[in-house]
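Box S1 | Example of a co-folding query
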Amino acid sequence: MARSVLDYRGKLKPTWCPGCGDFGVLTGLFNAFARLDLDPNNIALVSGIGCSSRLPGFTSTYGVHSLHGRALPIGQGIKLANPGVEVIVVGGDGDAFAIGGGHFPHAARRNIDLTYVVMNNRIYGLTKGQVAPTSDINFRTVSSPYGNFEEPINPVAFAISVGATFVARGFSGKVDQLTDLMVSAIEHKGFAFLEVISPCVTFNKVHTYKFFQERVTPLPSDYKPDDRTLAIEMAQVMEDKIYTGVFYLKEKPTYQDWLERISGGVEKISPEELLLSQK
Ligand SMILES: Cc1ncc(C[n+]2csc(CCOP(=O)(O)OP(=O)(O)O)c2C)c(N)n1
Ligand code: SF4
Ligand SMILES: [Mg+2]
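Box S1 (continued) | Returned holo structure for thiamine diphosphate
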């Protein structure tokens, strides 16, 4: 019998504030797991530290609630040691782009076969509302009382530029689309990055559900996710419209594919083949 979302629910009820966007992300993940009929005993959910990073604790799967900014190295280690395990790394914008920012580009360019879901609320929620690397210019918080003057990172544009092979954006207020994106990200062979716009209803009073509901728009129906330059351009549209959907998709050998080729040290990979695989 096929599994249902109930098979993935943990014993602990989420401790997020009522209305937190992360509820939508958890629902989307449960839907995606059920649709793919994944065995909960074969899923490893890995997180760092933050409100969003609490997510693995609310599921029945295996999980590691690790150190701030260190979820990706741990997720990569799990995948390399157990290639058959479905590894899904989750966390916040601070975890991914501030303290963990050094790990992101290397996991992406390595094209290691895992899914990375970043819940972007443009703030540090857990520590009560400090400015984040994704916060807008002039955004006022307890740690930026005169307004933020640091250029924000655009997670989707960043992920494409460092070599991720599946790059998408969803919104926790649109769970059906989010579920579809999660299914595609999990099915993708390689480094799949999914930014989820996930409002912090307690500390971010600017980037609210209403703010996003007025702007979030699916990518045009004739959009094709095979042009890196166009994908980065579309990702950076941030004023009247904020696009959601799959921005960039590329099939290429994963890190594990290369490892398999050289295991035993018998087979040589020609420089031509390596170069061709990057095209
Ligand atoms: C090494 C270390 N530095 C700082 C902290 C404090 N800290 C915990 S969570 C966090 C930021 C969380 O922001 P984000 O990753 O965006 O998650 P959110 O709570 O917004 O979901 C910080 C700075 C910590 N736990 N460990
Ligand atoms: S503080 Fe913000 S991010 Fe954290 S649980 Fe509450 S609403 Fe969610
Ligand atoms: Mg955050």
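The chain has a mean pLDDT of 96. Residues 129 and 203 are 5 Å apart (CA to CA).
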